[in-house]
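Submission checklist for the structure archive. All mandatory fields must be present; incomplete records are returned to the submitter.

[x] Identifier: DUF3231 family protein
[x] Organism: Virgibacillus kapii
[x] Residue count: 336
[x] Sequence attached
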Amino acid sequence: METNYYYQEELTVAEVSTLWTSYQNDTMLICGLRHFLANVTDEEIRSILEQFLAISEEHQKKITDIFNAENYPIPQGFTEQDVNSEAPRLFSDRIYLDLMLNVTNFSMAIYGLASSQVERDDIIQFYIEAVDETQRMYKITKDTAKAKGLYIRYPQIPKPKQIDFVTNDSFLAGWLGERRPLLGVEITALVLNTRRNALGQALVAGFAQVAQSKEVKKYFEKGRDIAAKHLEIFSSILNEEFISDGSRILTSEITNSTTAPFSDKLMMFLVTTLIASGMGQYGSSMSISPRHDLGVHYGRLIAEISKYANQGANIMINNAWMEQPPIAADRKNLTK
């Protein structure tokens, strides 16, 4: 019988890191979904949440089996202690649907990257299947949002009459002189960033309403204000060219509940995850935009949320909420 080489080797750094991170994200999502399912009223949205929960629970089981087979410690992640399913709903069904749409967007990128980095056949297959599941759920979720009139299409731009070429460096300008119109890729990024900030603003505003720690509450209030500021910046750039971003303020989708459905630890982890995703999106947006003024805007906003993320990390460390990710041996100290 042919021996599978990969099963004789220790997990690589890429495999350990991606599986560990997936476990954290899946256990967090399981907690969130259990609370959502205890409160959701729309049956179509309930079906979507149930499918997400089944997928996340299966992921957790598969990762646990892999770690057990390798005698690798199972991460703590998030447990039933981090969710209060009996707490009143904090967000509307609309927020549940928007959040799942963003989760699938985020997950498709993460799983796709993971599948290109891992090497063992079983782990490659795990992430390939995760990509397929996430793409299927993305379509189901988006189709449901469209059918309910909750999904707003991206704006349109005129069809060109012919191909053309850039002939001068004003194409790159943005601060002085006449600005060129926004490119399609720039509009797409700006619209995406307005929508993400609208959702982020609603989430942290809701979390600020129920956080147990005064320090965490203050942190979320600051995040709410940062998201509102970024939303205004992106919207104003589009409005200058009479382009609608299609976003809407979602804070009206928060209930008046002050009972925490989740632990402060879980809410902090979710917010820091969203910040990391936001920095990545801003970096991507900056990389595709040749207009200098947009690049400067993105650079400043990345610096602002990077500082905010660092404050959040310190809160988590000080409260012993940050689980140690896989890390290399400290060989400098081992040799002392």
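[x] Structure attached
Curator remark: The chain has a mean pLDDT of 92. The radius of gyration is 22 Å.
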